[in-house]
Amino acid sequence: MSNPIVEVKNLTKRFGDFTAVDNISFEIQEGETLGLLGPNGAGKTTTIHMLLGLITPTNGTIRLFGLDLEQHRETILRQINFSSTYISMPFSLTVEENLRVMAKLYGLSDVSQRIDEVIKTFEMHDIRKKLTRKLSTGQMTRLTLAKAVMTEPRVLFLDEPTASLDPDIAYKIKAFLKEYRNTSGLSMMYTSHNMQEMEEMSDRIIFLQRGKIVAVGTVEEIVERFGQRTLEDVFLKLAREE
Ligand SMILES: Nc1ncnc2c1ncn2[C@@H]1O[C@H](COP(=O)(O)OP(=O)(O)OP(=O)(O)O)[C@@H](O)[C@H]1O
Ligand SMILES: [Mg+2]
Question: Is the four-CA dihedral 161, 145, 64, 188 of positive or negative sign?
Fold first, then answer.
């Protein structure tokens, strides 16, 4: 039985006369990971930012948990979270202080316990008291993920979560996310420019190009529909078609 957690209808975002996201519709089912794939500038981050309520759509509707985002903003935002390698956060706070701020913003009750848990999960003991601006890229990524996971979201939006990570940490992060998803029933929206990672993480993929959906389906379905061997082949074929 289908049980959509996210429902997007006719979503459009224009910046001036430039259309970044062009009339897209899709759903994410409970427990599903939907991969958003597409070349640079395709509209992936813009789509995610609209789903997070960070920017206002020009047109269309967004529903999460059966509620309209515009009308039930606070209820919805409490139950979702976001992580990106390109996120910015208070750099003059320590790792632990940053986690504490996030916990307070979300009104968590067992703050110290949750902080200890994510510090353990993401192996951050040695950087707990370190200033955020002194973190390496990989350490920063772990912190942004820890902040997102700490609030126990029902939907997690991950915009290039493994970009600029070394292969060992990237592997650990993906393993953690898969395990976490399997045990919590979490739904995710995921972007990456690494095709192998998209195949590995996504139950289904939406292919965006110049703001439009040009393909939807499982990796196998998309590969077959375009008569290619791999997702990378499909990507190259679509990206080179003008
Ligand atoms: N605030 C803004 N004002 C004007 N144009 C914008 C704004 N934000 C995004 N755009 C434009 O919208 C388009 C889509 O950008 P977006 O960041 O969503 O792409 P993306 O698919 O995430 O790309 P990438 O793979 O490079 O991260 C781009 O052409 C970008 O320049
Ligand atoms: Mg982007």
Answer: positive
**Residue percentage of the chain with pLDDT more than 70:** 99
CATH architecture under which domain 1-79+154-242 falls: 3-Layer(aba) Sandwich (3.40)
If you count them, how many residues does the chain have? 242
Among 45, 193, 209, 214, which is best to mutate for testing ligand 1, by the most ligand atoms less than 8 A from CB?
A: 45
Distance 87 CA to ligand 2 centre (A): 11
- What protein residues have CB closer than 5 angstroms to ion ligand 2? 44-45
* Tokens coding 73: 């903003």
Question: Where along the chain do its domains lie?
Answer: 1-79+154-242, 85-152
Q: Which of 80, 58, 70 has its CA nearest to residue 5?
A: 80
For residue 192, count CB atoms less than 10 angstroms from its CB and return exposed for 0-12, middle for 13-18, buried for 19 or more.
buried
The model carries a pTM of: 0.94
Looking from the CA of residue 43, the nearest atom of ligand 1 is: 18
Q: Which residues of 199-231 are buried (b: 16+ CB within 10 A; e: fewer)?
A: bebbbbbbbbbebebbbbeebeebbeebebeeb
Please give the Cα distance from 25 to 36 (Å, whole number). 13
**Torsion on CA atoms 197, 202, 207, 213, rounded to nearest 10:** -160
159 alpha carbon, closest ligand: 2
Query: Among residues of the chain, what percentage have pLDDT more than 90?
Result: 82
